[in-house]
Design brief:
By secondary structure, the protein is an alpha+beta fold. About 15% of the residues lie in helices and about 45% in strands. A hairpin with a 5-residue loop joins strand 4 and strand 5.
Length: about 250
């Protein structure tokens, strides 16, 4: 069976911010319109991992058969180190083991307009228990996708607060591979412009494997997102998405 992963990182398309960045700066060391921190999707952070350590399955949790997901809100500084990890879901035993593992994580710096910036994101671990006869085994893996939460919307955090933009798809077909591509691996990287009405205005291909490109673009052009609001008014937004196809491991 094939597997599709979608990673989304949101960029703000805001005329006020754009004009401030394009215009001459009166004080070079001060960038009042540059956000102090941005939120990015958990799948994007997984792609930035340079070093990680998976949690050790706690013995008490293993013998009790405890399993499930542990999800953290994390803040990563400009050097790629985790400054804050706050659990938002999970059994306390599994949370404790996960928090220890997070101390070993290192990321490549997230760049905004070529400069490192602090980011807030989510990171999760999936714990599973398997039994074979008298043997009990535990397995832990990083979660490649984290369920959508309204309270964690990706967007730019300005000095005044959060300009909330969330590319939440409400309709549109997922890319369907033809039989000749079934089971084959490939990726497609896109920039998607969402209009004030939530419909896709433009799709630009940033890269990828050619056999998959036209299929993904044709599907994405049919997507409809929740209209993006800034200060209560509809706004155009630009999002980056990556699609990964391949056999299930």
């Amino acid at each position: 069976m094939r597997r599709i992963k979608i990673a989304v990182a949101l960029l703000v398309c805001c005329a006020a911010v754009a004009s401030a960045q394009d215009g001459p700066a009166t004080q070079p060391d001060v960038q009042p319109n540059r956000p102090r921190m941005i939120r990015v999707a958990g799948a994007v952070m997984l792609g930035l991992i340079e070093h990680k350590a998976l949690p050790e399955y706690p013995t008490l949790a293993l013998t009790a058969g405890l399993q499930g997901d542990v999800i953290f809100k994390i803040v990563v500084d400009e050097t790629g180190r985790i400054l804050l990890s706050e659990p938002v879901e999970g059994d306390p035993l599994l949370v404790g083991a996960s928090a220890d593992a997070l101390r070993e994580f290192r990321f490549r710096p997230y760049l905004l307009n070529g400069s490192p910036i602090r980011v807030e994101s989510q990171l999760g671990f999936h714990f599973t228990v398997s039994k074979r006869g008298d043997s009990i085994n535990g397995q832990v893996e990083c979660m490649s996708t984290i369920p959508y939460r309204p309270e964690f919307r990706t967007g730019v955090l300005t000095n005044e607060g959060a300009s909330v933009l969330w590319p939440h798809k409400v309709s549109g077909p997922d890319p369907q591979l033809p039989p000749e591509l079934a089971g084959k691996s490939g990726s497609v990287y896109l920039t998607i412009t969402i209009g004030e009405d939530g419909k896709v205005q433009d799709v630009k291909v940033l890269g990828g494997d050619q056999p998959f490109v036209s299929i993904v673009v044709a599907a994405v052009k049919q997507f409809v997102y929740e209209p993006q609001l800034v200060d209560g008014k509809p706004s155009v937004a630009t999002t980056q998405a990556s699609y990964h196809f391949g056999p299930r491991r």
